[in-house]
Design goal:
The chain is α+β, with helices and mostly antiparallel strands. Strands 5-4-7-2-1-10-13-12 form an eight-stranded mixed β-sheet. Strand 8 and strand 9 form a beta hairpin. Helix 5 packs parallel to helix 15, helix 9 crosses helix 10 and helix 20 runs antiparallel to helix 21.
Length: about 800
């Protein structure tokens, strides 16, 4: 029988009926070293406001026994156990076993290929705790959890709360953890295995980091950075929210075969892919810091104060994404965090918000299956940018006062959007109802342009705009030249305007004779796209690289990118403009996403006849960047992706020296170009100390223009799912290469055949496989229609991911057709 998804109506009824007093959960992990089973006994103490009523508890594991107040119960087979004739006070006891710990949901058993050691992690968002033990798996039924874990004697166990009491048993250890504060079920966690552990004291907190033993040297290398950012983040959030993190212990556990990171209270779980096997680049170090701060922000947004239902998911994710950039710029060395956000995730959000799965940031969610489909670019980067605009709109100090009040009122409970709006309205003295409706209840992206009539400048919205504050910058050529980008523009004025209608006068700019470029949304204060006026369009594309700051260049790049994705600019125009920005860029955090963007345009958006030229332009930019010692690593990685002949690759290998990561990248490119790399790949695999180096070797095979290699890789990647979820994108990108259409065509149908099954394994695998396996080559617009039609019967998370990805590829296909071909066609 199919496992049922909890509906909003059911959750509201159950939430009104019950008050959960506590969970006592006994977990037995002693079978995991040699087998798949996790055994649990969940005891739930709860009261019922209507004695005699009935409800249900969630349990999608195999139920061995279940009793309510001593009376036996029978599971319904759909992930639920009916609870009839409730008393005023109740005790539920359920024994369960979960044996699907390889591809199942909620709990995962991973074997380290380096030494055969077994590690176990749990991850429950949005409603996957029910796959491990019985619980009321909805966010508003918060309660203290007491975990007792029996594990193999050599294992370390981590959980949400404090210091456990550890007892030595005959052939195991029992870990008894103190009660947690009131938490939603999805905020709880157990991780276990023979971890390498490092601990530090910082500002009264006991900080711990963990990783599998084979990655101990990498964790040791990154420990100082992890502890520094953790200390800085805890101090920053404790101050701005006027609520220090209330628990002394704060752990972060890096585990294999995990996707992303999860904000479990006091015990964040990470994919150990974040522990870079090569020395991290500046962008990789910044990403580590931002993810750390994002998950930390959830201690307040999500854990201490929890959304009542999943329609307020943005209260968790958008706020955490906003807060991590806020904290990074204010409290850490990553002062270009917002600029890198603009160069990366915000561009994705602009595209998503103009596609088939655009949705309001806040929208009705009928069940949890639908909720899983909105962990997306609208909820995360658009939501973060909208909150940055809200802070601009009300003022940072008033924003902080409002957030302080919000946490003080709702700590350890649940809250709604209206609760937040009320707190911010009171603090700011502004009626935010109109703002809320326009920004949170309405989908789509505002677009602005400027009209000039002599010295009069008017900001014009393409449609009715949202209320917002944005800036217009005036830039002039001052005669100063840069050795890389030529003439440099200087900002001569910055004017903030509050937009309330379609046309807004912009006063305070210099006269028309005193500026050369006007930049809409300078400082990137809002979420809106812009267009240069037709008379200066081409000059604007050239001027993007001449702007003086990472943010100003990023705002111009966003305009160029948006024009490419909407068919208003060619790949050649956009590629040349963004490659020039790459050459001129001074921010280390922005160079890497800018390089990725330029290479993507050449590879995925350019017509076949223009691809080589644009790729060569990016390669030239990489050669230039490689002359700067601090950028050499990033530049050589870019060159490995864009090298066009064996001589380039031979020189690249010479420059790589002992850089194993760069050698793997060069091998992937050589394989794609038809080189015989099997022997060299085998030798490199023997040299590489990375326990997951076999994935790099598989990536090399994925790129080969060879039918046997393609078949082998597809089987491991898409059918067997043998590749760790955090590496699927890497292998899939090597598999789907341009100029290999004849080899790839059979797999386009195989992707369609996978669609009904892509949801297996839960939300993260569904998103990863649905998105990364979608073919960007060897297809035509008819295929896009077929895929979108096939998605209608898929799970919501698969459907939305597929629709979003297919829309992007549709835009790529349009861009690959030259204007001459469009006319002749």
């Amino acid at each position: 029988m199919e496992i049922r998804s909890l509906t909003r109506t059911e959750a509201e009824r159950r939430g009104a009926l019950l008050q959960v007093e506590r969970y006592d959960v006994d977990i037995d992990l002693t079978g995991l070293p040699d087998g798949p089973e996790v055994r649990c006994v969940s005891s739930v103490t709860f009261s019922c406001g209507e004695p005699g009523a009935e409800t249900f508890v969630d349990c999608a594991a195999e139920v061995r026994s279940a009793t309510l107040n001593g009376t036996s119960l029978t599971p319904t087979g759909d992930g639920r156990i009916a609870l009839p004739a409730l008393a005023g006070h109740n005790v539920l006891r359920v024994e369960s076993v979960q044996a699907d710990t390889t591809t199942g949901q909620g709990v995962h058993r991973a074997i380290d290929p380096a030494d055969g050691e077994v590690y176990m992690w749990m991850s429950f968002e949005p409603d996957e705790a029910r796959y491990v033990w019985a619980c009321f798996d909805q966010p508003d039924l918060k309660a203290p959890h007491a975990f007792t874990v029996t594990a193999p004697p050599a294992w370390t166990v981590t959980s949400n709360s404090g210091d456990p009491r550890i007892e030595e048993l005959e052939s195991a250890r029992r870990w008894t953890f103190p009660d947690t504060p009131p938490l939603s079920t999805y905020n709880t966690v157990i991780n276990a295995g023979p971890f390498h552990e490092i601990r530090r004291e910082a500002d009264g907190h006991d900080l711990g980091i963990y990783a599998r033993r084979s990655l101990a040297p990498i964790l040791d290398r990154d420990a100082d950075e992890l502890f520094t950012v953790t200390r800085q983040g805890l101090a920053f959030f404790g101050e701005v929210f006027a609520m220090p993190f209330p628990q002394r212990k704060y752990d972060q556990v890096f585990v294999p075969e995990f996707g992303g990171a999860m904000e479990n209270y006091g015990c964040v779980t990470w994919s150990d892919a974040f522990l870079r096997r090569a020395t991290p680049t500046p962008a990789e170090s910044e990403l580590l810091a931002k993810v750390l701060l994002h998950e930390m922000a959830h201690m307040w947004f999500g854990n201490i104060v929890t959304m009542r239902w999943w329609d307020d998911l943005w209260l968790n994710e958008a706020f955490a994404e906003f807060a991590c950039h806020w904290a990074a710029e204010r409290a850490t060395r990553y002062t270009d965090a917002w600029a890198s956000h603009l160069a990366g995730d915000k561009l994705k959000a602009y595209l998503s918000d103009q596609g088939p799965v655009s949705h309001p940031i806040h929208q009705p969610i009928q069940d949890v299956a639908q909720a899983a489909s909105i962990f997306d670019n609208i909820t995360y980067p658009k939501g973060a940018s909208v909150l940055q605009q809200l802070m601009t709109y009300v003022g940072e100090e008033r924003f902080r006062v409002g957030m302080t009040a919000y946490f003080a009122r709702h700590a350890w409970g649940s809250a709604t959007l209206q609760d937040l709006i009320d707190a911010l309205s009171e603090a700011s003295g502004r009626d935010l109802d109109t703002w809320r409706t326009a920004w949170l209840a309405t989908a789509g992206t505002d677009r602005f342009s400027l009209e000039r009539d002599g010295d009069t400048v008017t900001l014009v919205a393409a449609d009715t705009p949202r209320p917002q504050v944005l800036a217009v910058g005036a830039y002039s050529r001052n005669g100063r030249n840069d050795e890389t980008s030529g003439e440099v523009l200087e900002r001569t004025a910055l004017v903030r305007v509050e937009v309330t209608q379609t046309r807004t006068p912009v006063t305070g700019l210099p006269t028309e004779a005193d500026f050369d470029v006007l930049l809409i949304n300078d400082e990137d204060l809002t979420f809106a796209t812009a267009r240069p006026d037709p008379a200066t369009r081409d000059a604007f594309f050239r001027a993007a690289a001449q702007l003086p700051t990472a943010i100003s260049r990023g705002v111009a790049t966003a305009t160029v990118w948006d024009m490419l994705t909407t068919g208003e600019a060619t790949a050649a125009e956009a590629g040349r403009s963004i490659t020039a920005v790459l050459t001129a860029e001074t921010s280390d955090a922005v160079i890497e996403p800018c390089l990725t963007l330029a290479a993507n345009i050449a590879e995925l958006w350019a017509p076949e006849g223009e691809r080589a030229g644009l790729t060569a332009g990016v390669a030239d930019a990489c050669r230039h960047l490689a002359t700067a010692p601090g950028r050499r690593q990033v530049a050589l990685r870019g060159l490995a992706r864009t090298a066009t002949n064996p001589d380039d690759l031979a020189r690249l290998r010479e420059q790589a020296g002992d850089d194993v990561d760069l050698l793997w990248r060069a091998l992937v490119r050589e394989a794609e170009l038809g080189g015989d790399v099997s022997a060299e790949s085998a030798r490199l695999l023997e040299r590489d100390p990375d326990p997951d180096a076999w994935v790099r070797a598989l990536t090399v095979r994925a790129a080969l223009p060879d039918p046997a290699a393609k078949a082998e890789v597809w089987q491991k990647l898409a059918v067997d799912r043998a590749v760790p979820v955090n590496s699927v994108g890497q292998v899939a990108a090597a598999f789907w290469r341009p100029d290999q259409d004849a080899l790839l065509t059979p797999y386009t149908q195989r992707y369609l055949d996978l669609i009904p099954h892509l949801h297996r394994g839960g939300m993260i695998p569904a998103m990863v496989f649905a998105g990364h396996l979608f073919p960007p080559h060897a297809i035509d617009p008819t295929y896009i229609e077929e895929a979108q039609k096939a998605s209608h019967e898929a799970a919501p998370v698969v459907r939305n991911t597929l629709l979003e990805r297919s829309d992007t590829v549709r835009r790529m296909l349009h861009s690959r057709v030259t204007p001459t071909d469009r006319v002749s066609g």
